[in-house]
Amino acid sequence: MNCLDYRRALLAGTGEADAMRVHRLQCAGCTAEWQEHAAFEGALRQALEVPVPEGFAERMTTVPVARRRRFLAAAATTLVAVGAGSYAWLARQDPLALACIDFVMKEEAKSIMMGAMPRAEARVALAGTLPVEVLEGVGQVRHISPCPFNGATAYHVVLAVPQGKVTLLVMPSAPMRGVRHADKEGMHAAVVATKNGSVGIVGADAAVVMSVAGAFQAYAATRSA
Ligand SMILES: [Zn+2]
Description:
By secondary structure, the chain is an alpha+beta fold.
């Protein structure tokens, strides 16, 4: 086992096997990485333990079900529409989409360590771009915090969807048209327009990224119609 193998295995999150422990015990760099990873996991767990707002459970069991269904139906339609252009994704690496992937690889852990913003504050901050209720209609919001990104303040969101986890970068001051894509080191990113801004979606599964992107596009379309 070398350092690269160790760090890849660590990020895969399957726990530390014996061969990994043997390497760590004789490698200062991987020991530091391991400690940071443990701190990150702890911070993520804390982020998950945010107090549940009043009426949240009720909303989760009633309204969002219909809303989620609507989003998923809209997402499926959008996917078909996007399908014809999907080869462009493979051919073109958009710089902003690549920056979103870089954020996840280099900054996400730090952003989570810094702590989430109060949910009430997040609702106000995102209301004009991509309301928290819309995010909640697509998945479970696990973390929201402001962060410097692409020369402005973006909102970093960790969203758990049934098929896994995606990271969002909500950019209130970056309006755009169309869809931008990038692929890098097993990560996929799409950037789509929202109301008055845009949102980058990053995940390990391209189909999941596209379906979340489709849901947000559907939201943007209903708002401007
Ligand atoms: Zn090492």
